[in-house]
Amino acid sequence: MERINKKIMKLGTLCYINNGQQTLMLHRIKKENDMHKGKWNGLGGKLKNGESPEECVIREVKEESGLTIIKPSIKGIITFPAFDEIDDWMVFVFTSNQYTGSLIECDEGVLDWISNENIYNLNLWEGDKIFMRWLNDKPFFSAKFIYERKKYIKHSVIFYK
Length: 161
Known about the structure:
This protein has 161 residues and is mainly beta. The chain has helices at 53-65, 126-131, 134-137, and strands at 10-18, 22-27, 40-41, 68-69, 73-80, 89-96, 99-100, 110-115, 141-148, 151-159.
């Protein structure tokens, strides 16, 4: 009998917290063997069993930054087939402009409030430079971003009204 490789899609969240003039970004420079090493990302992480995307994004932001986000707003869903050359990811993308608390030190990198006009000057994934522009003025989206060996290849997107 032939064995079937059953790969399970990993689920994650990503959140961009904005204070009106700046966005909180994470410079991934601390962890060894980090796929995102050297890149700037929003905050987020993997869903735990039984956790909703909203519960996950609130927990992950708190763990990584010390901030408690209030009423995170879901903006879209992105699928990344074999992003790390192994696993498929589905990521729920959120924004938040309401939060309480103070920043803490993050185990994964350095947190910094980046001026909104300087965001695209950071070392971002190429796909991030595309979808981050959809977060404020576009309707809900479902997108698929293809990368090969950490290089952006193409994307597709559907915007919902």
